[in-house]
Amino acid sequence: METPASEPSPAASLSPYWLRDNCPCAECRDPRNGQKLFQITDLPDDLTIAAHTEADGRLEVLWSDGHRSRYPSGPPAQEGGDGRTEADKRLWTAADFARGIPEADWEAYLADPAERAAVLTAVRRSGFAVLRGVPTVDRQVLRVAETFGHVRVTNYGELFDVRVEPDPNNLAFTSVAITPHTDNPYRDPVPTLQLLHCLENSATGGDSGLVDGFRAAALLRAEAPDAFAVLTRTLVPFVFRDRNTELRADRPLIDVDPLGRIREVRFNNRSIATLRGSAEELDAFYAAYRAFAAITLRPELQLEFRLDPGDCLIFDNVRLLHARTAFEQDGRRHLQGCYADLDSLASTLAVLHRRTAALDELAALFAGEGAGEYLGEAVTMAEHMLQAGALAEAAGAPPHLVAAALLHDVGHFQGALHGRDLMQGQDNRHSDTGADWLARWFGPEVTEPIRLHVAAKRYLCAVEPAYRARLSEASEYTLQVQGGPMSPAQATAFAAHPAATDAVAVRRWDDEAKTADATTPDFAHFRPLLAALMT
Length: 535
Known about the structure:
The chain is of the alpha+beta class and 535 residues long. Helices cover 36% and strands 16% of the residues. The chain has helices at 16-21, 106-111, 113-125, 140-146, 213-223, 225-233, 279-296, 342-367, 381-394, 399-407, 430-438, 444-451, 453-463, 465-469, 473-481, 488-495, 500-512, 523-533; strands at 3-4, 49-55, 58-63, 68-71, 103-105, 128-132, 160-162, 178-181, 193-201, 208-212, 236-241, 246-251, 254-256, 262-265, 303-305, 312-316, 320-324, 333-340.
């Protein structure tokens, strides 16, 4: 029964245009990518909620223009921000890392999605992380960047070598001390990530340093709010020139969002060109600038550590200020660096979290509904699918077929019809249901053999008489429910399908995977394989 919009309701208190703009139906959003199919001006000027129902946490709205919206779990949630401001960061001092800095082994980072997510989370939240054991080979820093994003090419090229140069165009290519600073503040947009990979470091000195620029800015705001305000509104001309390049960006030292939250820090005394303004304005700026600079040099904010060969530092270039102590030229110090961007890192991290959530959901199905009986056989649903996956793995099948064998019956867990209905004479089309559900995360190389594994049974029964004779009693019964053996024309059409061979392979493992008390790996064993296949 629909409730008139005049009656009090949480739905009625929502902005109608906001609610309608977030309608998830296929008329309003492309089901493949979620992008909206209408312009906001397409909605009528007098849009109202005509009626609505709310039950079991779901909301259905009938609009005044006749459109009907269904929200799966009530109205869409109000999401947080983009994670770029101080509100989503862990502001720190050096003492916060007394037990060690965020770090991970390179091989573990590559092999374990959870380890990779932990490293990227550290960069996003604390501003940095160090990978240990990265191969000390030329251009390896680019490979590191490509694990989470794209290299930003600058006038320095894809990468740059940080070592003493005979004719340097930047003080970074000398042995002198470098105070805390932002790289490339004269670019718009500035590269938001920097990577530094140590190839060699046998010189005396040359230790690396980081300062949390957001923490320094927050201290300035607390101690001298007027100075903080000056640095957020004064446009500073950052400039870089050499023989082949001339770059300029006018940006404040401290950038805040419309809510006043710190979003970026650009700080580089070497790149500030001549400011223009009245004497009063310039006095105010330089007083604030000096106060901020003094805070960045406070010992308690200085985190110092040494990069050894094989270490790769990844850090947020619009938050952390990086530094280097002077070093003697009694040994070689050679780092290779490159730039990348936070949006790609955030995207990779979000996908990793999404995949982890999907794998957790699958694991819960195996542990929950999977404990139930499997169509009258002597194994549970989970035992059957784990056996199929193990058989595929033992046969040396490629990863996509191992995954298809493991997940082939997941459709029995999903949709309005449960697998038990199949044993009551009703085809639940579980192969299609499972393939469609899994297509959110896996490509057709995994989903199509699953979609066709029931058809593969019907095909084999048509072309291999001995195959049908080996079917279990339950499988013979479901064969009849699912349409029986294929006709010659159907069998010919099936054999021509690109995924037919894979589907037949999955079918054979499916038939074998019914041994009571068989020893098989658990679902966790297959997680890395599944994670590597997820799109």
